[in-house]
């Protein structure tokens, strides 16, 4: 597979169905932002905690499915798509992590140790990816499960950040108003 083709030099790119769209189209913005989240999640691994790293690896694979889902305006039965099971898996991660965390008492400032701060950054970008997906869904066909997945993902990344910081002994800071 050749890395460069020159097909995108004019500002256009191919979707899964081989239709050509502008690189600024809402569909490209949506899956491009998901790619950014995936890269950020990859930058935090390894966190030093095998249980978190295993979950993050699964999430990275899910994010590839989200990208494929968004890149395909008319998926066929055998095409990769995010399903309810993917959303439920992330929900189970959140539930598991919350059992170890102290209950949240107030808003917290994003940050902490290196891994915690990177997870907070990934969370913020996952929120942007969700907004891009919602914008895409205003006038184009989008798998609603993929949007739900991105919504749950930001929550998961938030609790992962809290947990990594807690395990690292980094205290949470509340904003001052």
UniProtKB/TrEMBL annotation:
Q: Which GO terms describe its molecular function?
A: ATP binding; corrinoid adenosyltransferase activity
Q: Which UniProt keywords apply?
A: ATP-binding, Cytoplasm, Nucleotide-binding, Transferase
Q: Where is the Cobalamin adenosyltransferase-like domain?
A: 3-163
- What's the top EC group for this one? transferase
Q: Keyword Aminoacyl-tRNA synthetase, does the record have it?
A: no
Q: Where in the cell is it found?
A: Cytoplasm
Question: InterPro entries under this entry?
Answer: CblAdoTrfase-like, CblAdoTrfase-like_sf, PduO-typ
One Pfam entry name? Cob_adeno_trans
**What's one GO-annotated cellular component?**
cytoplasm
Q: Which Gene3D superfamilies match?
A: Cobalamin adenosyltransferase-like
For this protein, the Enzyme Commission number is: 2.5.1.17
The answer, when asked if ATP-binding is one of the entry's keywords, is yes
PANTHER family listed in its UniProt record: CORRINOID ADENOSYLTRANSFERASE, CORRINOID ADENOSYLTRANSFERASE MMAB
Q: What NCBIfam families does the database record attribute to this sequence?
A: PduO_Nterm
**What is the designated name of this protein?**
Cob(I)yrinic acid a,c-diamide adenosyltransferase
Instruction: State the organism of origin.
Output: Halogeometricum borinquense
What lineage does the source organism belong to?
Answer: Archaea, Methanobacteriati, Methanobacteriota, Stenosarchaea group, Halobacteria
């Amino acid at each position: 597979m050749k890395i460069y083709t020159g097909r995108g030099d004019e500002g256009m790119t191919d979707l899964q169905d081989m239709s050509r769209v502008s690189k600024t189209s809402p569909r490209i913005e949506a899956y491009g932002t998901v790619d950014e989240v995936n890269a950020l999640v990859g930058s935090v691994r390894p966190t030093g905690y095998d249980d978190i790293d295993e979950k993050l690896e699964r999430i990275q694979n899910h994010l590839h499915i989200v990208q494929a889902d968004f890149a395909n305006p008319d998926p066929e039965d055998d095409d990769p798509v995010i399903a309810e099971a993917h959303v439920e898996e992330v929900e189970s991660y959140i539930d598991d992590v919350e059992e170890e965390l102290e209950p949240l008492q107030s808003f917290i400032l994003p940050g902490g140790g290196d891994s915690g701060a990177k997870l907070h950054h990934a969370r913020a970008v996952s929120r942007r990816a969700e907004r891009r997906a919602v914008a895409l869904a205003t006038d184009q066909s989008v798998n609603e499960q993929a949007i739900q997945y991105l919504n749950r993902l930001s929550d998961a990344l938030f609790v992962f950040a809290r947990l990594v910081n807690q395990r690292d002994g980094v205290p949470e800071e509340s904003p001052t108003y």
